[in-house]
Give the backbone structure.
Amino acid sequence: MPKGGVEDAEGAIHWFVTALSHQPVLLSDVLASLAPVAGQTYLDCTAGLGGHAAAIAAILGPRGRVILMDLDASNLASAAARVRALPDAPLVETIHASFAEAPHRLAALGARADMVLADLGFASNQVDDAARGLSFMRDGPLDMRMNSTARLTAAELVATFSEPQLTSAIRQFGEDRHAPRIARAIIAARRLAPIERTTQLAEIIRAAVPRAPADTIDPATRTFQALRIVVNDEIGNLDALLDTLSDAARAARGPRPMFLSPSARVGIIAFHSLEDRPVKQAFLTLISAGLATPIGEQPQTATPDEAHTNPRARSAKLRAIALT
Ligand SMILES: C[S@@+](CC[C@H](N)C(=O)[O-])C[C@H]1O[C@@H](n2cnc3c(N)ncnc32)[C@H](O)[C@@H]1O
């Protein structure tokens, strides 16, 4: 039971069910790569439901420090509750912001991380919640925001983007060759009625895209991926994180170190090539500049057992480096 996290029995049951059913991906690879030691400081850029954070916090112990970041205030609170509920919990601090803000937020706390993890994308509880509007299989409002205080929802995007803007977003972030056709269909449909529901948009896409009998992927999949990436500026945030990690790696041994300790270990878990490509490139640049060494295989992926029991792990790729 989290200390101070839930207020009634229903809340407690929900917390337990969510916490117990949530399996953090590549957990043993993350632990082996970040190699936490009692008393160290851990920055979790994507706290989620606190699965990775709790496992690492258990090793850090009461002299350790865990800094949790998340754009989703409710996940951040769940993760903090889960870590604080551990026996001999470390100090837990929370930051409700994008991980792109890590450097100045950690500077404000006077902290330098020995380990950093970013487990990108959405958490299972966000995807499963129809009210978040992420799934074309469940009817819900076309929202898609990780941060419910952010301005742009997917419904606003679909209502306001021009045809070229929609085409380019669906092509770039959904990698869908039918992007022009889908954009045209969205523009035609929104002239008749506002597009406000997930299933409504999915039907518009399905009707616009020719489907071969052998197609196993729903035609809406790629457009939904594109919209959530744009709504949450997922690639912009990742690029900003990679830039700050590179700057911090360069500064780590200098007179003005930033938010990483000199031999910090950094892991990033990506779920598709739009995320993995920039991570791979940024890490290779640091390695070839002699500022970091690779940890383990590049990338580390799920064992057949984990892929079987945790479907989310099937596409997960962990890349990890240690600053030198
Ligand atoms: C895959 S989940 C993390 C799961 C977590 N590792 C665990 O074990 O429970 C990703 C989380 O990162 C958050 N997130 C995604 N992008 C973010 C960003 N740019 N800044 C902060 N949090 C972000 C999401 O809201 C979500 O809660």
Q: What stands out?
A: The chain has two domains: 9-125+234-323, 151-231. The domain at 9-125+234-323 is CATH 3.40.50.150 (Rossmann fold).
